[in-house]
Input
Amino acid sequence: MIHPGADINTIADFFNDLVNHSDERGLQAAHEVIRSRVNDRHLQQGLTLAADGNHPSIVSRYLSETLPHNWDKDMVHRIRDAVEMWQSGKTAEQILECFGQNYSVSQRYIG
Output
């Protein structure tokens, strides 16, 4: 389950599965993966907003406002960037870079 205390590899594995599932079945089909694997209600809501096709700026703002209450600041940036990349159709390999050891806010994905 994905929650604020989950390790970075678990979160990266989730995003890999999420991307592969939505590549096969479409973005909206990701709801089943989100519901079954995400325990944090704010992250679950943010991912659902993304899967429903809300504009990335809305999703990013929601995640920026809600995740910092329970998540590490660095992980909030990584997750927010990964969600934005997922919404824009980036590959799993590109998205997983958000969870790499050398990823930093200065490398942030920009639209």
Q: What stands out?
A: The chain has a mean pLDDT of 92. The helical segments are 8-25, 31-37, 41-51, 56-66, 73-87, 92-96. DSSP finds six helices and no strands in the chain.
